[in-house]
User: Which sequence fits this backbone?
């Protein structure tokens, strides 16, 4: 049987890699990928620490997936709009928020 | 045998995630994301969450990755040129990330592992029953959230309605 700690370590490492992507990349789509990795890392922990006899962890992970899907669609719509307006999705070059 | 498969998928998850971090090509990163998400789905199976694994494959690999690849294609400056995205803040990013990793691992050792030894069988029937009784309110809110996200995404990315009306 695999100990729950090993799930935890994989989740922690995956979360850190996602955080590193969010911090170091400047392409908006790359940052979105980093956020998805962080959400997946949290899901691994929800499932690994699911209490025996209950399904709470599984439902929590299910709703995380639902929210991630909604977040990705809206974020990509915003990215497309930003690209239409600024002709770039490099976040360092997008400084003003006005028209 | 189970252990070998588990560590294989664990290492595959981390390796492909690390490739996203080091690659400069956005399209390669999107393809590597597919490998990461599929191996995370394999890890879900080891926690007896088969339904979640299938959901992960359908929604993430079938939906979100396709969306991301379309996003990459639609935000390409010049067609035919590979999309290159360098990295910034390398030093501070590494320091913050390593700090968070060490913090997480230390705090993880304080956690008492709650019985992953005794796994209950989470059949789809069982899940569906709970979804319609115990978790009915979150279920309905999730449905509403998805509707709002759908409308919002199509309004934000769609054509400019305002100029057509006036």
Assistant:
């Amino acid at each position: 049987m695999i100990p729950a700690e090993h799930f935890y370590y994989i989740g922690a490492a995956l979360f850190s890699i996602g955080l590193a992507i969010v911090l170091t990349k400047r392409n908006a789509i790359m940052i979105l990928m980093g956020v998805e990795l962080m959400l997946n890392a949290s899901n691994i922990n929800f499932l690994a620490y699911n209490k025996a006899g209950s399904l709470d962890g599984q439902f929590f992970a299910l709703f995380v997936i639902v929210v991630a899907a909604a977040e990705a669609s809206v974020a990509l719509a915003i990215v497309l709009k930003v690209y239409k307006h600024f002709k770039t999705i490099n976040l360092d070059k997008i400084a003003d928020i006005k028209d | 045998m189970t252990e070998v498969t588990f560590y294989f998928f664990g290492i595959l998850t981390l390796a492909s995630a690390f490739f996203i971090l080091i690659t400069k090509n956005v399209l390669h990163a999107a393809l590597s994301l597919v490998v990461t998400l599929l191996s995370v789905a394999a890890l879900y199976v080891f926690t007896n969450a088969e339904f979640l694994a299938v959901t992960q494959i359908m929604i993430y690999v079938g939906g979100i990755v396709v969306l991301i690849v379309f996003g990459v294609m639609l935000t390409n400056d010049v067609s035919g040129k590979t999309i290159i995205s360098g990295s910034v803040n390398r030093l501070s990013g590494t320091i913050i990330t390593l700090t968070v990793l060490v913090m997480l691992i230390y705090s993880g050792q304080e956690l008492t592992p709650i019985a992953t030894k005794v796994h209950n069988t989470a059949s789809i029937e069982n899940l569906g029953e709970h979804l319609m009784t115990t978790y009915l309110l979150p279920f309905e809110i999730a449905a509403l959230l998805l509707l709002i996200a759908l409308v919002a995404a199509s309004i934000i990315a769609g054509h400019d309605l305002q100029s057509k009306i006036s």
About this structure: Chain A has one domain: 4-86.
